[in-house]
Design brief:
One of its GO terms (molecular function) is pyrroline-5-carboxylate reductase activity. This protein is of the alpha/beta class and 276 residues long. The protein has two domains: 160 residues, 3-Layer(aba) Sandwich (Rossmann fold), CATH 3.40.50.720; 96 residues, ProC C-terminal domain-like fold (Orthogonal Bundle), CATH 1.10.3730. Helices cover 53% and strands 13% of the residues. Helix 4 runs parallel beside helix 5 and helix 7 packs across helix 12. It is elongated, with a radius of gyration of 21 Å.
């Protein structure tokens, strides 16, 4: 820990290894929030479409990942799980404990990342796809040499694209099953609600708009009103009314159990993948 050099909270250079959609979403959120200007962010990619996407909000584009490492204080690895080991090992000679390393790669544990990098100033983050619209749910776990200040810097960074929690890494498989895979469950629910509206006679476009706005509004109520979901449900379900009739059908079909099973199944699969 004696060699740990503090990262300046507002003047560091941020580098992305991997210039895909998630990296773009994070970078856009950081710039839009005013946390860092695009000139302090860099990445590398050869495809013109990816270079243009990042350059459109001021990010510095380089030709090689090695250049990104050499020109960054905080480095976020945002590559596919099957290549992250080779990428980190290739860059290892350039990595130092003066740099804070971050991984958003699903299923790859801190102990492996730290071993490949040759040091343990690493932070693992599990965001989800609503990062693209600034509404991510991100969970952070600190590696052995990452400091409290490091955690605060990354908390602010990912706070630019949504809400952030800190948790022990042992919970990450369950987190993957809930918030990582969870958006897909909600997309299915929105589609099903819209289909129900169409079946009841609504035009498709109106049904989909109502379904998506209803889910958005309900989620905002849970997040902001301070009531338990069961109380909010009770507030809508008047005696002998339409809502309780719908809820009765959901309960007969095992709606809550199905969602619970989906989270548990995805968590189990995440655990299997991380051990393979």
């Amino acid at each position: 820990m004696a060699n740990i050099v503090p990262i300046p909270a507002d003047s560091y250079k941020l580098g992305f290894i991997g210039a895909g959609k998630l990296a773009e979403s994070i970078a856009r959120g950081v710039v839009k929030s005013g946390l860092l200007p695009g000139s302090q962010i860099r990445t590398a990619h050869h495809a013109l479409s990816r270079r243009t996407a990042f350059e459109s909000f001021g990010v510095k584009m380089l030709d090689h990942n090695k250049q990104v490492v050499e020109d960054s204080d905080v480095i976020i690895f945002s590559v596919k799980p099957q290549v992250v080991k080779d990428v980190v090992l290739q860059l290892r000679p350039l990595l130092s404990e003066k740099q804070l390393l971050v991984s958003v790669v699903a299923g790859i544990k801190l102990k492996d990342l730290q071993e490949w990098a040759g040091h343990s100033r690493f932070i693992r983050v599990m965001p989800n796809t609503p990062a693209a619209v600034g509404l991510a749910a991100s969970v952070i776990s600190l590696g052995a040499a990452a400091t409290k200040d490091d955690g605060e810097i990354i908390g602010k960074l990912f706070g630019a694209i949504g809400k952030v929690w800190t948790a022990d890494e042992k919970l990450f498989d369950a987190i993957t099953g809930l918030s990582g895979s969870g958006p897909a469950y909600i997309y299915l629910a929105i589609e099903a609600l819209a289909d129900g509206g169409v079946a009841a006679g609504l035009p498709r476009e109106l049904a989909l708009g109502l379904a998506s706005q209803t889910v958005l509004g309900a989620a905002s109520m849970v997040a902001n009103v301070g009531k338990h979901p069961s109380q909010l449900k009770d507030d809508v379900a008047s005696p002998g009314g339409t809502t309780i009739a719908g809820i009765h059908e959901l309960e007969k079909a095992g709606f809550r159990g199905i969602l619970m099973n989906a989270v548990v199944a995805a968590s189990k699969r995440s655990r299997e993948l991380s051990q393979s």
